[in-house]
Amino acid sequence: MTISGTTDPIAAIATAPGKGGIGVVRISGPNLDGLAAALFDTPLKARHAHYLPFNDSQGQPIDAGIVLYFKGPHSYTGEDVLELQGHGGPAVLRRVLQHCIEAGRPWGVRHAQPGEFTQRAFLNDRLDLAQAEAVADLIDASSEAAARSAMASLSGAFSKAVSELNERIIHLRMLVEATLDFPEEEIDFLEKYQAKPTLDGIIADLAAIRRDARQGMILREGLHVVLAGRPNVGKSSLLNALAGDDVAIVTAIAGTTRDRVIQQIHIDGVPIHIVDTAGLRETDDEVERIGIARTWAEIERADVVIHLQDARDATDELEVQIAQRLPVRTPILTVVNKVDLIDATAGADTSEEDTLYISAKTGHNLDQLRRRLLDIAGWSPGAQSPWLARERHLRALEEAGEHLNRAREHAEHDDQVLDLFAEELRLAHEALGAITGQFTSDDLLGEIFSSFCIGK
Ligand code: GDP
Ligand code: ZN
């Protein structure tokens, strides 16, 4: 998909597939007056609700409903937008859409690509890139906390924080660059404009934005947890116990031997994707061996591995072997289950650093386990997440931080380095500008918008 592209009118069903009370067909284009006249006998008044029949080319009614007309630039896309709100059935909506495309042939109306409405909103400056991404994130939000933060991003809270920071960098850049034209002033530039304290202030505020963005990213991405352990230690029981009343989404991906079950639960609004795996043990059974190989593959991809053990044989040789094979760079939570079966005092000590004693059956210490998972995710409970962020944003913030730190070092080692100082500021400015889409390649834009749904 190319970005700096076309302005053909586009049309799509904007509501979710399936049946619904109402369904919406949306059309956007530079000028839809002609199309509106072709579709409806009544002249449409901008921003007025008209109740009208939606007729086919023979004048036969397909449906009837509300028509809204937004004249650009006062619309979602910044272009003219027509919205036909009819009954929300897939067949009737397809017919309405098809008719709009046929009637729109003289104006080149075509089917919209994924995210193309929002892409136009971005290209027409109705939204910046971080806000456009928040549109998708709001729709995809899997918890109320995530939805709240996505809405904050959509309203521009994140963009505003980033832009304000960038303004300060731009100001400093202007001062340096003006000075570069007068080399005799270079020597005392840093003093004269208090460049070092100014830069320190910017660096500190960037760090704060990064902390919030990290919270926002956790809220968006969640944590991938793999439950690993021998057969019968209670992996599936623990998964069920953690899921509790949560509206769990179970995805069963059929495999060759055994289904892989990912269940999404929420802790504190943070999505936790838990993978239940085939039990690990020595076996001659070929089918089981394949399952075990897949378990190890899951373990390699995990953010966190819960190494689950049975309290009755937690210390034996096989557990040691499993522990030794777990990847060193992945956080491992050693969890001993079924403490209800052993003497409550023998090993139910929860103060032990890296081992947690639980019972999936009685629920003992499950709250501790939940807290431990949030901890590993880097989530600070109670801390607000003022906006939702993506990994891309976090990388840009990190990159900007590195350039500012380097600028700071140049400032420390004083003279003759003002051009290096200026260059680092420029790079920091560009990194931050990528977040809001000021400096972004067409490839990246294509990637972002093509991951949207059609009609968005
Ligand atoms: P998996 O093979 O690791 O998934 O283990 P399951 O979850 O299928 O559990 C194996 C058996 O252990 C079942 O009979 C469970 O009811 C039992 N079990 C699981 N957790 C506990 C626990 O905390 N206490 C007790 N007493 N039994 C448990
Ligand atoms: Zn199981």
Could you characterize the architecture of this molecule?
The protein is of the alpha/beta class and 456 residues long. The protein folds into 2 domains: 10-127, Probable tRNA modification gtpase trme, domain 1 (Gyrase A, domain 2), CATH 3.30.1360.120; 129-437, Rossmann fold. It has helices spanning 33-39, 90-103, 116-123, 129-140, 144-154, 157-180, 189-192, 195-221, 235-243, 286-301, 317-325, 366-377, 391-412, 418-436, 442-450; strands spanning 10-13, 20-29, 50-55, 61-70, 80-88, 110-111, 223-229, 249-253, 260-267, 270-276, 304-310, 332-337, 355-357. Strand 3 (50-55) and strand 4 form a beta hairpin. It is flat, with a radius of gyration of 28 Å. The protein starts with 9 loop residues before the first strand and ends in a 6-residue tail after the last helix. The structure holds guanosine-5'-diphosphate and zinc ion (ZN). One of its GO terms (molecular function) is hydrolase activity. Belongs to the TRAFAC class TrmE-Era-EngA-EngB-Septin-like GTPase superfamily. TrmE GTPase family. K(+) binds at residues 232, 251, 253, 256.
